[in-house]
Amino acid sequence: MAVRSQLVLASGSPRRLQLLQQAGIELEHLTPVNADETPQRGEVPRSLAKRLCREKATLALENVNRSDELKGSYILAADTVVGLGRRILPKAEVLDEASTCLRLLSGRNHRVYTGLTLVTPNGSMRHRLVETRVRFKRLSRDEMEAYLASGEWRGKAGGYAIQGIAGSFVVKLVGSYTNVVGLPLYEAVSLLTGEGYPVHFNWVNQG
Predict the structure, then answer these.
(1) Interior CA angle at 105 toward 129 and 89, to 5°?
(2) How far is Cα 94 from Cα 83, in angstroms, rounded to an integer?
(3) I need a labelling partner for 141 at 20 to 30 A (CA). Which of 20, 27, 63, 173 fits?
(4) pLDDT of the chain along its 207 residues, tens only?
(5) pTM
(6) Are 180 and 134 in contact (CB under 8 A)?
(7) Domains held by the chain: number
């Protein structure tokens, strides 16, 4: 009997794991990688997302190739970047960063980019870049202060999590909602299916 190829997610993000599980995909392994996410001089948001997902995939492939158990696996890498024009908003780790992000996003349109890279069992790479446009309501000082106090922003691109409290800030969204959460499911599943990964393997057992 043929052995089903394994899938490795080059991320430690619980949100990405949950999204894949939502699509009926059970991951065998998580292999977070430590890529330097510092933007290069003059780099714009979409370029950063494309570069980082490729770098993460390359690092994960090196790790996988050192493991007899994982060698020949599919590897999925992703990186999400929030952009305001040409400006890249940080993954907020401290209060001042989150506060700056909220002030910039209040009452304005911004874009969320996720770069995807799929490494196939033969080592070839497939890439996608997904863009979603989001508009925030104009936030009052009380709303900003309360959101900052919640701590929900910590470690999130642009200083917010759309799947949480900040979902109530969104006036309009054009494109993929799951992209803003951190992994555009349609494109991820399409990549996997197109390269022969048995996405539907677990679907028949969902009932």
Answers:
(1) 50
(2) 19
(3) 173
(4) 334 578 999 988 888 999 999 998 888 788 889 889 999 999 999 999 999 999 999 999 999 999 888 889 999 999 999 999 999 999 999 999 999 999 999 999 999 999 999 999 999 999 999 999 999 999 999 999 999 999 999 999 999 999 999 999 999 999 999 999 999 999 999 999 999 998 887 677 655
(5) 0.92
(6) yes
(7) 1
- Sequence letter at residue 151: G
Q: Which domain holds residue 97?
A: 7-205
Q: Which residue has the tokens 């799951």?
A: 178
Give the catalytic positions in this structure. Answer: 79
Is the CB of residue 101 less than 8 Å from the CB of residue 169? no
Q: What are the strands, taking DSSP E only, across the chain?
A: 7-9, 29-30, 74-84, 87-89, 109-119, 125-136, 170-174
CATH of the domain at 162: 3.90.950.10
Selection from 32, 9, 31 nearest residue 21 by Cα: 9
**Positive or negative CA dihedral for 83, 150, 137, 141?**
negative
Secondary structure (3-state) at 145: helix
1 found inside a domain: no
Ramachandran bin of 85, using left for φ above 0, alpha for ψ from -120 to 50, beta for the remaining angles: left
Q: Which two tokens stand for residue 142?
A: 């009380």
Report the distance separating Cα 47 and Cα 98, nearest Å: 23
Q: What is the dihedral of CA 34, 40, 44, 49, to 10 degrees?
A: -20
